[in-house]
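Researcher: Let's do a round of design. I'm pasting the structure tokens now; please hold your answer until I've finished.
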């Protein structure tokens, strides 16, 4: 009976591993195809479409990006700056707010939590947000236009961190620190933060990805005349893609359009935009899995 149970358990484990391997391949293959397509000859891609085994390889799409590197390189530096500053501020605001609402004895704790949850369900819309940020906070054509709107503090992240503080850090530990003379700030910095590395790494990665991939805020709040020097990599790559479409669709510029690898260029643009986050993700994966699991459980 025991041997039968062991065999059944082994079969289920093998089946589970097989399903996970197949699922991982299905998730990975589109990215592999994206990379291969970016190295495919443009004319070959037009004739045969995208394939894992192209008839002819080419670096023309990346040569085109290299010719535009003066603009793209500056955009990369701006993206790194916005991602680092925005993620740092997001971690500070999210963790401090979550620490406050995790204290059940805090006056108005339920009201603050309600306001946080309310913003997950309702908002004023794009028009109202644009008016407030442009005419009240005056962030248009400034670097804050890429940091503040919709990204600085996510209520979803607040809930994750708040649940982590509540379920993973013993209240007795915090009370013992207070008895020893530690004030609230010292408790937060010296005890809570060191014990919260998994959830902080999790929301830090989520915030960094959001900042890195964001281009809508630049579209709304940066103008070509006043804010073009603040363009991030996503905005610049989107502009390049628009220029390619313009050349391809304008009959007066047909000769110039033929010199641009428009089909494979789009794939190269996607690779350039996503590659840094793909490289960074494995370093945060162990924290991501642990943090999202603990922070997502509410007793």
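Researcher: That's everything. Go ahead.
Model: Designed sequence:
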């Amino acid at each position: 009976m025991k041997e039968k149970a062991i065999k059944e358990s082994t079969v289920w484990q093998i089946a589970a591993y097989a399903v996970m391997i197949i699922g991982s391949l299905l998730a990975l293959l589109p990215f592999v195809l994206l990379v291969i397509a970016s190295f495919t000859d443009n004319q070959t891609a037009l004739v045969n479409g995208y394939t894992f085994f192209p008839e002819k390889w080419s670096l023309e799409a990346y040569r085109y990006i290299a010719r535009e590197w003066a603009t793209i390189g500056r955009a990369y530096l701006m993206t790194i700056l916005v991602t680092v500053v925005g993620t740092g501020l997001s971690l500070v605001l999210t963790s401090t707010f979550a620490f406050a609402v995790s204290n059940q004895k805090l006056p108005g704790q339920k009201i603050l939590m309600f306001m946080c949850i309310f913003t997950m369900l309702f908002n004023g819309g794009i028009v109202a947000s644009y008016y407030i940020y442009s005419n009240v906070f005056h962030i248009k054509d400034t670097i804050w236009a890429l940091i503040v709107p919709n990204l600085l503090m996510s209520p979803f992240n607040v809930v994750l961190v708040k649940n982590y503080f509540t379920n993973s850090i013993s209240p007795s530990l915090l009370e013992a620190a207070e008895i020893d003379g530690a004030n609230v700030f010292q408790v937060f910095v010296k005890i809570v933060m060191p014990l919260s590395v998994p959830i902080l790494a999790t929301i830090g990665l989520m915030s960094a990805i959001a900042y890195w991939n964001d281009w809508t805020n630049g579209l709304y709040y940066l103008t070509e005349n006043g804010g073009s020097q603040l363009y991030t990599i996503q905005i610049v790559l989107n502009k390049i893609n628009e220029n390619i479409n313009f050349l391809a669709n304008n009959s007066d510029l047909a000769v110039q359009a033929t010199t641009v690898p428009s089909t494979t260029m789009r794939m190269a643009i996607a690779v350039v935009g996503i590659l840094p986050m793909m490289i960074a993700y494995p370093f945060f994966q162990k924290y991501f899995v642990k943090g999202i699991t603990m922070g997502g459980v509410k007793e």
